[in-house]
Design a protein that fits this description.
2 domains, 219 residues, membrane, transmembrane, five-stranded antiparallel sheet, alpha+beta, transmembrane helix
Amino acid sequence: MQYYLAGIAQVNNGYYFHQSLKPPVMIEYILEVLLSIGFFRLLLYILILFAVISVIKGSLQKINNVQTNWHKYLDHQPFSPQDFYSELSQEINAKDIPQLSLTRIEYPEGGIFSQNREYLRVSCRQYIFDVCAAPFSTGFFISYWMGELSDPMKDIFKNMPLIGRFFRKRQKTFFELDNEMLFKELISTSVKKVFDEMIEIKGKRNVAIDGQANVTAMQ
């Protein structure tokens, strides 16, 4: 590689940097030189791959391997979904479960262009509950879907030859199995408890309001 004092560089590879060139042009030539080197090209491919994986991972944060589900339907609408999510979040947070996370997510009701339905996601490690509260017909329902969270990035590495076995799941210990079962039981119980309590409170309020209305009418 030769460098001239006048500003012309890398003659043997055919790239010339002259002092008369403007900075953007020089930067473009520098990038071309770097890309001509195999290491930088490989690094660029790796960055693009991880960017694509990140996009896929963000768009596929859905339940994989659904293990159980539950639902309850009422023929009236006793409270709003937001009220239920708020009460359930308080109930679950009070249990102080390690590595617990509560977030709001959206699932499409049908195809790509359909409306989204909001869910409350309760997660602990790879285990998740997606809880839905929503009106249906003239009534209202509560449901949850319990399973494991999909992770496209891990799936890609697990299917790679040679190194794939280092990313595959090992057998769970008794301690991990105990934690998994306790988490499932606590969240399932919390959903049903909050639902029943809110129904009971709403029923008492309706009775009180109706009673007051009757007293007023009699006066």
